[in-house]
Amino acid sequence: MPPRIVYNWVPMTEKIKTFMRSGAAVPAGLFLGFLLLYGLTLDKAYVFDSLLYALSIRQPLFDGPVTSLLSWNHFLWFPALRSVYAGLEALGFSPDAYRFIQWWNAVVGAALAVLLFRFLARYIHARLALTLACLAGVSHLVWLRATSGDPYLTGTLLSVAACYFVTVRPSWRGLPLFWLAAPLAVLAAYFHFGNIILVPAAALAAVPGRGPEGRREGAVILALSAFLLLPYVLFYELWTPAGFREWLVWGSGQVNGFLPGLSASGQFDLRFLANLPTGFATLARSAVAFQAGGPLVTGLAALAAVSLLGWAVFDRSRAAFDREAAAPALIFFMAITGFFFVWIPGNIFYWASPLVFLVLSAGLLFKDRLRSPPPPRARIFIPVFGAVFALVNFRGAILPALRGLEHKAAVEFCRDLGRATPAGSVILISGVSDGFLKVGIPYFARRRMFPLDLVIVQFHGTGQDPLAALKFRLDGYLDRGVPVYMLDDVLRNKDAYEGWGVVRERLDAFLGGYRLEAAALAGAGENPAALYRLLPARPH
């Protein structure tokens, strides 16, 4: 009879108890808890831009022009995520690109909650720091960004880290680390260029309450940031008038239809004071997922935000204003919020950073009131309030995104296209009846796609015939034996291009060069669509 092995669990139990008593237990639990929450609520919304990002991540690292890798508004986001994705593929994993971005954001969101907790816990009671970090983590926009496929939350994490280093000023073996605010702020801008406003904010945040030393540190941060921004300046030739003008067309949003002759500021609305109510309402909606609008809600949101900040600044019961602790977060908040007050102030998409810095600023401004543990009644109220707050945001924003009903039929239709057409085939679509197909077909069907509207727009004003150019491309595929298909929305939208000079008769003549052979496609949901195979009018 083999000897009985008795395992002594006491050392393991003691290690667990030691860990639970250590300062790492709460951050570790917070990270794992939010990672689990975000992982269980990853969305299936498949919004247009997110699928574009996923398509880019799925490409080989150096496939296509360099400008598609080093994007003007997400300069390092694509290289960073493409590199990690390529590394996973090299290790034998083949993750779905959209899911990969979502898990990246989930990790970033969980790390953001931990950073907020560690930041606030240096100045206020740990329970209250944990409360504020959790409320930020289940807020409407942070939760939505942490479960989506867009590139914005990483910049938020990096900007909060920059604020941490310029506020806390940690050191390593006697070496001050305040200067790390510079690379972190620049990285935040490189991940989303709207965060460029935080580069001077980081330099300015080093000054309050520090006298000449603070001014020197601010100058160091500013100089180091300028040096780290040189690759961007050189790549886009921003020192030349032509390079700067070209960049401005993109950077101001003129490329989205705001022609310089009509709006030189593009999507910037420079009426700052007029935008205040809209901006504060957007800030409120970034915290809580409510759909109500109108002047009343906008005004109440603005009044609440101004009252909160006013109370924090003028509360006479507090000790003297601690400029070193509270001013940096407030400077970051005012900089990023002021920027979005003039950049599409009603678009909630970008407002995760203003919301996070509002939470951080409020915690630091009220730090004298929040140093003591919450009273017994509050210990009951806080979890109940947090649960209701999370439930409201889950039902109002997370659950609809999780269900993904808006694009569900279109996603299934694109998958049907992939099953109905051979690999490597080409599909012609109108591009006007369902814009989602422009990203859905290449992503879900994995087929090359030509949207007729974009082809026409691309050649408009060049003097070239867009239909002749398209025919040349399609005939080239047919000559090489590549199957070419067409959705029937091209037939249904023949009058959609008259504004671009392409009338129905020209489209009829273009299609007259091919034979249409019906292909088997059941369609999806309530939007079945006919699929045709394009064959030469005369066999080659």
Order of strands in the sheet with most strands:
4-3-5-7-6
Biggest β-sheet strands, sense, barrel: 5 strands, mixed
Number of helices: 25
> Could you give the count of β-strands?
7
Mean of all residue-level pLDDT scores: 86
Distance between the termini: 83 Å
What is the molecular shape?
A: globular
Structural class: mainly alpha
Residues in β-strands, percent:
5-15%
Describe the 3D structure.
The protein is built from 25 helices and 7 strands. With 540 residues, the chain is mostly helical. The chain has 2 domains: 16-30 and 96-254 and 262-401, no CATH class; 408-536. A 5-stranded mixed β-sheet has the order 4-3-5-7-6. Helix 6 crosses helix 8.
What secondary-structure arrangement, pairings included, does this model have?
Layout: H1 10-21, H2 25-40, H3 48-58, H4 66-69, H5 77-90, H6 97-121, H7 126-137, H8 140-146, H9 153-168, E1 171-172, E2 175-176, H10 181-191, H11 198-205, H12 211-228, H13 230-235, H14 241-251, H15 272-287, H16 294-314, H17 323-342, H18 352-365, H19 376-403, H20 408-420, E3 426-429, H21 437-445, E4 448-451, H22 452-459, H23 466-479, E5 484-487, H24 489-492, H25 504-511, E6 514-519, E7 531-536
Parallel strand pairs: 3-4, 3-5
Antiparallel strand pairs: 1-2, 5-7, 6-7
